[in-house]
Amino acid sequence: MDEALIFDHKSRDWHPSSHCIWAEDKIRLPGLVSIADQYQMVEEFFVGVLKIESPELEMYIDALKSEATNPARARVFELIECLCGYDPSPRELSELENCKCFPVNVPGEGQKWMDCSGAFAVGDRRVYVELSRSEIPLLDFSLEEIHSSEIFLSGLGIDMKFLSVIARAETDASETSVHRMLTSDVRRKAYAICR
Fold this sequence. Notes:
Helix content: 25-40%
Strand order of the largest sheet: 6-5-7
Structural class: alpha+beta
Strand content: 5-15%
Number of helices: 9
Radius of gyration: 24 Å
Low-confidence stretches: none
Order of helices and strands: EEEEHHHHEEHEHHHH
């Protein structure tokens, strides 16, 4: 029988070692209590003697699938960040293909949760986001969140939905003249920077 030998200072309760995981407090996995921050000084005892496990990629995948049944945006992103820490391959992430873990702002409908095959774009460039925010469904991640979760997004093929990939910038420079003084000034500065 697995006795409740480990005291969790946060919940003020005792837990069996099989319900504990050697991880920081910010890492919350379903049915497990993270204890590393509370017992840093005696890690060898908990990991070596009591055989408390460290989290593994599969645990985070299961936690994300579980969270997606009733998702909270902050918690989903927290799990995605943890997954990125393992540098997972597309094969390892493949079981998340049908997981509705992407918060998407749909114009006129509010936020919806979609899987990676959903019809949405990723606003990875500020100017593109400003131009398309009210026109197309966009992933509800900030630019910083997009860049920090790029491993996850790429692993699920979401990188093909980046606006920088699917948008095409066109300019029309008809009836222009070359301003020789400005051109010379730009060339001079460019030369100085590149030296």
